[in-house]
Design brief:
The chain has 395 residues and is of the alpha+beta class. It has two domains: 188 residues, no CATH class; 194 residues, no CATH class. 58% of the residues lie in helices and 15% in strands. It contains 14 helices and eleven strands. Strands 1, 2, 3, 4, 5, 6, 7, 8, 9, 10 and 11 form an eleven-stranded mixed beta sheet that branches. The longest helix is centred in the C-terminal third of the chain and has 44 residues. It is elongated, with a radius of gyration of 34 Å. The mean pLDDT is 81.
Length: 395
């Protein structure tokens, strides 16, 4: 026990006596462990944000749109009865259609009209239950209702991003110019993650769209909520239900699949970054071996004196292995803490949910420790082979 305690004391003394060298040796394990922890942690945090979004919005939303054959070369539309036909599918819970009106110019009532004239803004009409189907909410005001439709009111609901661009203030009486017609803003729609185009869109009543712009009431896009667990079967049944077996094509998409695909891409990126962290550890291991080999030459006098005093080769080798062990422990711990700091910093900047993988901390720390010990074996063996007379030549 005294023998081991003496070696431990010498190893610690060797590290603390040359602080700059010790910090340089530790840099490899620190960067490697930090890279591994940060790579996997950021990936998990990004996917955690995706999972949170999917839990909030659901994975049962299906989007159906015409592939261009319904309208004979004109802007593609679905049949006027598309919503009713979709509701005939037993696994459809609710559905709503929107009609996108093309070639309209939308301008704010004041300020920046020339600037916004060059920016395309989607103008839509929609079913009154669109919010219910999308599980969306109003940020301010209200949505288009029956009174707007029955009385042909020129009311408008705008997306949150468009409201920000127009510098709309909550509760403000504001009008917008839609192709020369004045519409009053009655509400601002909160961001809809699965349908991002609504964030910059203007939604107006069907009746006023027909009155002002001669728009046919044929939906261009259908949003369908399937009952839980039936998304695949519903997406397969919808095209047939909408076109009634005719030759016309219906394109079906599941927006949540895009988010899940994003998670898969993040997994690939995580693996790449994990390998880069491992490479940093290997490079750090080479650095440990090089610096400790130089240290052996610099400390050859010390080694020679200890060998002359009766210290065995095993004792000398054990000293340098313990130094590498301390470097691995301290470097791995510092790297894990640095990686956690990176996870929290990036998550705070990007608005992600910081996710910590505790078993990964042990893996990263253990890898740093193992690489450090392996890297320290060569200098340890080199030091153990030195004979007292040989150290006089090196010193």
């Amino acid at each position: 026990m005294n023998w081991f305690r003496e070696i431990l004391s010498v190893a610690l003394g060797g590290l603390t006596a040359r602080k700059v060298r010790t910090l340089l040796i530790m840099l490899g394990p620190v960067l490697g462990a930090a890279g591994i922890v940060a790579a996997v942690g950021l990936n998990e945090s990004a996917k955690g944000d995706v999972r949170q979004t999917l839990e909030k919005l659901g994975t049962n939303l299906i989007v159906a749109s015409a592939d261009g054959t319904f309208s004979g070369g004109e802007a593609p539309t679905l049949p006027e009865e598309a919503v009713e036909r979709a509701m005939n599918v037993s696994t459809v819970d609710r559905a709503a259609g929107i009609t996108e009106i093309g070639s309209l110019t939308v301008l704010p009532s004041q300020g920046g009209r020339d600037f916004f004239r060059t920016i395309p803004v989607p103008v839509l009409t929609s079913d009154q239950n669109l919010l219910n189907v999308l599980d969306a909410k109003m940020l301010y005001g209200r949505f288009i209702n029956g009174a707007d439709e029955d009385n042909i009111f020129r009311s408008a609901v705008i997306g949150q991003d468009l409201a920000r661009d127009y510098q709309y203030l909550p509760g403000e009486a504001r009008t917008i110019d839609v192709n020369g017609e004045t519409y009053g803003v009655v509400g601002v729609l909160e961001k809809v993650a699965l349908v991002p185009k609504l964030d910059t869109a203007v939604i107006i009543p069907k009746s006023s769209a027909e009155e002002d712009f001669d728009v046919e009431q044929k939906p261009t896009t259908l949003y369908v909520r399937a009952t839980e667990g039936t998304v695949d079967s519903t997406s397969q049944a919808l095209p047939v239900a909408i076109n009634l077996g005719g030759p016309e094509g219906v394109v079906v998409a599941i927006p949540s699949d895009l988010l899940e695909a994003q998670g898969a891409v993040d997994t690939t990126l995580r693996n790449i970054l994990f390998l880069m962290g491992g490479l940093a550890l290997l490079v750090g291991g080479v650095g440990i071996a090089n610096v400790m080999s130089i240290s052996v030459i610099q400390r050859s006098g010390e080694i020679g004196i200890r060998r002359a005093l009766g210290h065995t080769k095993v004792t000398i080798a054990m000293q340098f292995v313990l130094e590498a062990l301390f470097v691995g422990v301290l470097g791995g711990l510092a790297g894990v803490l640095a990686g956690v700091g990176v996870i929290y910093l990036v998550s705070a900047v990007l608005g992600w949910v910081a996710t910590l993988n505790l078993p990964l901390f042990l893996v990263a720390g253990a890898m740093a420790l193992i690489v450090s010990i392996i890297a320290g074996l060569y200098p340890a063996l080199k030091a153990a082979r030195l004979e007292p007379l040989e150290t006089l030549r090196l010193g």
